[in-house]
Amino acid sequence: MPMEPWPRIGWRNLGRNRRRTVITAAGLAFGYFAIVLMNGLMGGMTAEMIENGTGFLMGQIQIHAADYLPQRSIYETIGGRDGADVKALIQTATADAAIEAAAPRVYAGGLVSSGASTSAAMLVGVDPDLEPGVSRIFRGVVKGRPPTSGANEILIGAEMARQLGVDVGDELVLVAPAADGSLGNDLYVVSGIFRSGIAELDGQFAMLPIGRLQALAALEPDRVHEIAAATADPWLASEAAQRLAGPISKLSDQAVVQPWTELRPEMMDYAQLAKSWSFVVIVIVFAIAIFGVANTMLLGTFERRREFAVIMAIGAAPGAVLRTVLYEGVALGAISLVFGVLITLPVLLWWHNAPPDLGWLYGDFTMFGALIRPVLRVEYDVASALWAGLALLLTALLAALVPAARAARLLPADTLSAD
Amino acid sequence: MTTAIGRAGFGLCLVLGGLNGLVASGKIEAQETPREIIDRVDRILRGESSHGLATMEVVTEHWQRSLTMEMWSLGTEYSLVRITAPRKEAGTATLKSGDDIWNYLPRVDRTIKIPASLMMGSWMGSHFTNDDLVKESRLVEDYEIEIGFEGVREGDDEVWEFVLTPKPEAAVVWSRIEFQVRKDDLMPTWARYYDDDGELVRILEYSDYREMGGRLVPAVMVMVPQDKPDERTSVRYSQLDFDIDIDEDFFSLRALQSGSD
Amino acid sequence: MNRARLMLRLALRNLRRQARRSLLTAAAMVIGGGLLIFSVSLGDGTHEDWIESGVRTGSGHIAIQAPGYLLSHKIEDRLSTETVAAARAALRSPGIAESVLEVVPKLTTGGLASSPTGARPVEVAGVNPVDEARFSTLDERAIEGRYLEPDDRLAAYVGAELAEGLELRLGSRMVLTAQDAEGEISGQLVRVVGIFQTGIPEVDQRIVHIPLRTAGEWLGAEGAVTTVAVLVDRSRVVRRTVRRLEAALAEPIADGRLAVLTWQEAMPELDAVVKVDDLGNYMFQGIMFGIIALAIVNTILMSVLYRHREFGVLQALGFTPGQTGALVMAEGVVLTVLSGLLGIGLGLLVTWFFWRDGLDISFTWQEDWTFSGVVLDPVIVPLFRTARVIQGLLFILFIGTLASFYPAYRATRIDVAEAMKFER
Predict the structure, then answer these.
(1) Banded pLDDT at B6 (limits 50, 70, 90)
(2) Is A305 left (phi over 0), alpha (psi -120 to 50) or beta?
């Protein structure tokens, strides 16, 4: 089947004024670049927020007894009074492909006293070996080191240390109402001080080896309140939690598996708001770009008005001319897209791997109780890259409409007799 | 009554009192105001000072346990309780001095002052709060007292039922406490605590009246929270002595820590 | 001078001659300028709103506190009666008083609220009911009962979540327990006169307002306060006012008796959120104008190439290449500035006309949404600022100049002989 000549004519027309084509394509390509990069940045910020919010302490997935939240009663351990096979729970969790690590935790409210002063605290029992896989709390240690398994050592927040007037190496008394009704109390040595930038954590949280807190709170070793798990990508958490629900309930029928999206819905809201904004950005950027493209193409069709008139004079239908110009627009869009992808990719790769640190400008800050490093990090956002590509082609096509219609409406006789 | 309820409230210096044989029902004269009657009950039950041994049993949804303890009191300002069993907690002591509460923890050999944020916390896992202990000495100042009922209630005993309503500015949470006292021997039978909506929140019941330290006292007190009727804290006295030789130094922090008694 | 005027006239004529092309380029610029003003004024409006509700829920645009209070939040770090008087005097002094709208003393302490149902940790603020009602928006959030009134003594205004947790209703007894100025534990009875709901969990769970006098008596700190919150007429005068206050209060500051904090220092989270949002806006505007700049380069360059012959003639008639370049430059700058002005004017007009009372974006969220402890108002009222309009103009001028450089450069490189030879 002989090919229609119109696409080829459209394509060739682009080559006739290369400079113009390049400049127009550059505009569209830059628009594409800007959108992908900006959405990547927004995605980076959202990811940063989610990763910090979930990764600092909470983990992306948590397993609890059904009634544990929100009261956090010391009795509501996984599996109730009989406890659960903690090892099996952790193994089941980590067996899931999306889950990188899991760690058990025990919580107890209590008093921390340095003798001179006393403050109320949330005591968190963590497994010093497994915890670093799940949360970054130990990376927040600014002085000393995390507690060692089996030792009466405690890691406290910087503000708590200040209020109690203690430093690394000092002794603290912990008093906590235990699960058997007794008043658990013991001496601990401050092994380290952490700073998270989150007032609540720094002022009220203290971490100690899980076994030591279980002993203090009179909980057997197989009684834990929480299994926290980390996923490689926070967005995998929801599905992983669903997958885990079955196997986990076989181990402990009252246990529930919740992803961060359920535990911290406001973070989810923010992420969604940011996503919906990325579409607004696409629309606005290309709406402006449309004028540039339309302008160039108008100019191009105007320049070639005699040519179109000749084609029509020798028998081409106006529709054919219209298609030629539209093809030209689409071809321009395609070139721009290739160009855009070519300039976007390396920048994206570089930026993703070496994000510039804006700490000098902002300092660390917190949002939704999550510490955010002011690092302009870029995430790969495939969906937005595809959408932006589609929007680019659409823009080129839309921008070609007016010039195409104009070209198709030319009156050959008048045009040819003009000069 | 203050003592009765208050100590009842705390459950430790607890009804250290009983009735002195001298105080027969006939001695209460008709023209006495409710406050005077209660004051009298109070003085009799408390004595100048006291010393006793008791066992506290706590039953909750999650566990039950039993503690034995030795206790001392001086006036309304001072009291000291030292746990003697089980071994795990033996030596743990609570000192009340005025409005402050201190806990001595033998395991770590430290004394900790209970901060404001834990005043409503449970004392030794029981249904009494640290605050109950502090408020005990304040009941007389904090409440207006009226007789709500006088006559025969279930059984043959003639009783007074006092209604305590907090004074306008008293810093207490209860909006009403009812307190029943037997007329013939001035023995308390129960106290009921109500919230703002007039709903019963907890009941303290006295029983097993017997002579200890030369006075008739209720040897058993049981506290039942109404929202968890299966839970309770009961205190049983095995020995009580009154007006013993003891002074303020006994209730010092140093004495608390040294455990020298 | 004359030459410049000539250039301008030539440039204008050229633009007029290519009306359609000029219009298309101008359209991109007009839309860009309009969007710039729209987004900037809405962005500023949003931030002013955040700051406003933030400082009104918190410690004001300017907080005068004892130096340690920011970290400790304890009553030990309080301002004595004399220090408060000194601060008040400084706030009344000329140069400061003009921008000060409200001066609100508060005595805030952490403590415990208890009812027969239980006990919860709270933050109790002793406030002056009349001042506080003007200062804070909390009084407007009552869902039951009323805010505190001047004659109240044992009254408390509590959050809905606290009321639910403690089973409180209007008239309920509530006992507040906290460490007083002497370090002793002290209790205070109050009765609930009003219940509020802000939608911010931390506020609805934790905040209790009681009369300042009651708080002072209860905590044994009569006349003392922990914070003097100052509201100024707009957030921009904060730094200036703080500088003047620090000069006026140099002596107590040197003694370590007080510190003057801006809202940025007292509420770093809010500051960070505003800055980050601003950064996002700047980036967006930068990208938008980057594209506009390319469109302008494109149009002007096209017109340069298209008018090869014309420029050839001009140069043949004695125009130097520099003058030719200047002409192209002038065209570009005139086009961008005119259309930019039009865009800004249009943006101002449209924004003012349609949304001066606020743009309701509540349809994008499901429900009340809070952000770093500030309830976001779904109605954004744009804030117009001359400085922003001037910034926008300069920005557009910059973009126009930048975009004209390359075409102007091309124009200087025209070979006269070649240009004249070229026949269409």
Answers:
(1) very low
(2) alpha
Q: Residue B8: which of B211, B203, B240 has the closest Cα? A: B203
Residue B192, both tokens: 């009921």
Alpha helix locations (H) across B30-161? 34-46, 130-136, 139-142
Q: Rounded CA gap, C155 and C212, in Å?
A: 11
CB contacts under 8 A, A 333-392 vs C, are 361-363, 365-368, 372, 374
Instruction: Copy the structure tokens of residue C273.
Output: 């959120």
Q: What is the C-alpha to C-alpha distance for residues A259 and A16, in angstroms, rounded to an integer?
A: 57
Q: Which of residues 161-200 of A touch C (CB under 8 A)?
A: 162-163
Distance (Å, whole) CA C339 – CA C345: 10
Q: Pick the residue with more confidence: B121 or B215? A: B215
A376-413 pLDDT, tens per residue? 677 777 888 888 899 889 988 888 888 888 888 877 77
Q: Summarize pLDDT for C310-349 with one digit per residue, the tens.
A: 888 888 888 888 888 888 888 888 888 888 888 888 888 8
DSSP state for residue A264 in the 8-state scheme: -
Category of B164 on φ-ψ map: left (φ > 0), alpha (ψ -120 to 50) or beta: beta
Lowest mean pLDDT among A223-227, B244-248, C370-374, C377-381: C370-374
> Mutate which of A195, A302, A365 to test chain C, going by most C C-beta atoms within 10 A?
A365
Which two tokens mark B229? 């009727």
pLDDT of residue B17: 29
For residues A118, A119, A121 and A125, what is the CA-based torsion angle, rounded to 10 degrees?
-20
What tokens does C383 get? 């804030």
Predicted confidence (pLDDT) at residue C370 exceeds the cutoff of 70? no
HSE-CB at B98 with a 13 A cutoff on CA atoms is: 7
What are the tens digits of pLDDT across the range B27-74?
Answer: 445 567 888 888 777 777 777 888 999 999 999 888 888 999 999 988
Interatomic CA distance for residues A260 and A55, integer angstroms: 10
Residues 73-92, chain A: which have Cβ within 8 Å of B? 75, 81
Between CA C75 and CA A393 the distance in angstroms is: 64
CB contact under 8 A, B115 and C179: yes
Q: Are A28 and A293 in contact (CB under 8 A)?
A: yes
> Can you tell me the distance from the alpha carbon of A44 to that of C280, in angstroms, rounded to the nearest whole number?
12
Alpha carbon B65 to its chain centroid, in Å, reads 20
Q: What is the DSSP string of C347-407?
A: HHHHHHHHHTT-EE-GGGSSS--EETTEEPPSEEPP---HHHHHHHHHHHHHHHHHHHHHH
Helices A265-303 and A382-408: angle between axes, nearest 10 degrees: 30
Strands (E) across A267-372 are located at: 365-367, 370-372
The answer to whether the CB atoms of C111 and B116 lie below 8 A apart is: yes
Q: Which residues of chain B make contact with C118, given a CB cutoff of 8 A?
A: 120
- The contacts of residue A356 (CB under 8 Å, 6+ apart) are A375, A376
**pTM of the shown model:** 0.73
* Per-residue pLDDT reduced to its tens digit, A246-263: 888 888 888 899 998 888
Q: Give the ipTM.
A: 0.74
Considering only A9-13, A201-205, C376-380, which range has the smallest mean pLDDT?
C376-380
Q: Report yes or no: B128 and B120 within 8 Å, Cβ to Cβ.
A: no
Give CA–CA dist C38/C382, Å, rounded.
8
Dig out the tokens for C407 from the structure: 């075409």
Q: Which residues pair with A176 in a beta bridge?
A: A184
Q: Which of A85-99, A221-235, B97-111, C277-291 has the lowest mean pLDDT?
A: C277-291
**Cα–Cα distance between A278 and B10 in angstroms, integer?**
62
